[in-house]
């Protein structure tokens, strides 16, 4: 997969079709490797139309401003689309944990334990917050918003939420730093965590990425926004 910088050097142009019949480049608005994989997967069935391009890892990241995931995803997408001088896709998501009330803000899921903390440190921080919670108090859902923008203007935004699962008292296996919550978030309807699920089980659990992928495919084929 080419980086944004490489795509410029070899002549790829992000703000229009490179040539008739070739896919439209779209910048992946994240430097998180695991998030890049998820965002790229949204176009698995649209590869003839769209070519996901990774950003330069040295490029500055946007300031995450907003009170909800919907707003923050839009801010990110607009920022990266200006960097790209064309199309960009970004997302923002987090854990909704009702029992923690004002002790937890889903929009700060990845920063609650502090800046530059590892996935394991984030796991330990969340588990310490929930150490006195039992049974139904450990209920949690994942919410994700994904936005697409072009040259700073919003194209569309989608938001989806999983069914309610539970935060386990300890991690179920290892999860990469960028997806650290996946080792903790257990769904009793399929008796698995996200990494263990089949595509059908993800659908049954209302996995936000699965839901949004379907929505983007439908929107893309109906509107052809990338042309």
Compact summary:
It is built from 6 helices and 8 strands; from the N terminus they run H-E-H-E-H-E-H-E-E-E-E-E-H-H. It has 227 residues and is α+β, with helices and mostly antiparallel strands. Strands 1, 2, 3, 4, 5, 6, 7 and 8 form an 8-stranded mixed β-sheet that branches.
Give an overview in words.
By secondary structure, this protein is of the alpha+beta class. The chain has a single domain (4-223), classed as Maf protein (Alpha-Beta Complex), CATH 3.90.950.10. The protein contains 6 helices and 8 strands. Strands 1, 2, 3, 4, 5, 6, 7 and 8 form an 8-stranded mixed sheet that branches. Helix 2 links the parallel strand 1 (24-28) and strand 2.
Helix residue percentage: 25-40%
Mean pLDDT equals 91
Largest sheet: 8 strands, mixed
**Through-space gap between termini:** 22 Å
User: Architecture, CATH level 2?
Assistant: Alpha-Beta Complex
The H-and-E topology, N to C, reads as HEHEHEHEEEEEHH
Helix-strand category: alpha+beta
Low-confidence stretches: 1-5, 7-16
Total of DSSP H or I helical runs spanning 4+ residues: 6
CATH topology: Maf protein
Features:
eight-stranded mixed beta sheet; 227 residues; 21% strand; alpha+beta; globular; Maf protein
Secondary structure elements and pairings:
Blueprint: H1 4-9, E1 24-28, H2 33-41, E2 50-53, H3 69-84, E3 87-96, H4 119-129, E4 139-150, E5 153-161, E6 165-167, E7 185-187, E8 192-193, H5 199-204, H6 208-223
């Amino acid at each position: 997969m080419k980086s944004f910088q490489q795509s410029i050097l070899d002549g790829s142009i992000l703000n229009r079709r490179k040539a008739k019949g070739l896919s439209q480049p779209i910048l992946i608005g994240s430097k998180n490797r695991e998030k890049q994989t998820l965002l790229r997967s949204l176009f698995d069935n649209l590869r003839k139309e769209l070519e996901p391009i990774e950003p330069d890892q040295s490029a500055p990241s946007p300031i995450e401003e907003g009170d909800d995931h919907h707003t923050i995803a839009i801010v990110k997408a607009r920022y990266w689309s200006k960097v790209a001088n064309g199309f960009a896709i970004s997302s923002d998501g987090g854990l909704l944990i009702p029992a923690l009330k004002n002790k937890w803000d889903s929009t700060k899921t990845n920063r609650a334990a502090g800046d530059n903390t590892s996935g394991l440190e984030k796991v330990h921080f969340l588990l310490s917050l929930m150490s006195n919670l039992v049974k139904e108090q450990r209920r949690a859902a994942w919410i994700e918003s994904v936005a697409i923008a072009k040259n700073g203007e919003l194209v569309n935004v989608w938001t989806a939420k999983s069914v309610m699962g539970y935060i386990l008292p300890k991690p179920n296996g290892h999860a990469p730093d960028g997806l650290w919550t996946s080792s903790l978030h257990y769904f009793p309807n399929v008796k698995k965590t996200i990494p263990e699920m089949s595509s059908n089980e993800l659908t049954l659990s209302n996995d936000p990425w699965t839901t949004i992928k379907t929505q983007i495919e439908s929107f893309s084929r109906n509107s052809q926004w990338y042309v």
